[in-house]
Design a protein that fits this description.
Length: 112
């Protein structure tokens, strides 16, 4: 099971930190990803982190603004989002790649 938290409404230029708490599987054996889906758009990959946290990658649209990290002893993956823009508005999902498991999603709205 994956449970996201930390979403909400923020003004442009603001920051949010998403968390995704995992249970029911061995978290440290799975790479993790964050995806997002805006209204009337396809779900897109935002960030990826390998099981040990060594390999990290980002979508071009968020590079330099978002940071993915993980805490394996706490079975949690994070997405720090800075300098948020209105186009970052979407439902954000965490995904356990090796177990093909999705979180329920959490809304992030960037608006003045």
């Amino acid at each position: 099971q994956l449970v996201e938290s930390g979403g909400g409404l923020v003004q442009p230029g603001g920051s949010l930190r998403l968390s995704c708490a995992a249970s029911g599987f061995t978290f440290s054996t799975s790479s993790m990803s964050w995806y997002r889906q805006a209204p009337r758009k396809e779900r897109e990959l935002v960030a990826y982190i390998s099981d040990g946290g060594v390999i990290i990658s980002y979508a071009d649209s968020v590079k330099g603004r978002f940071t993915i990290s993980r805490d394996n002893p706490k079975s949690t993956v994070f997405l720090q989002m800075n300098s948020l823009k209105p186009e970052d508005t979407a439902v954000y999902y965490c995904y356990a790649n090796q177990f093909r498991s999705w979180g329920q999603g959490i809304q992030v709205t960037v608006s003045s």
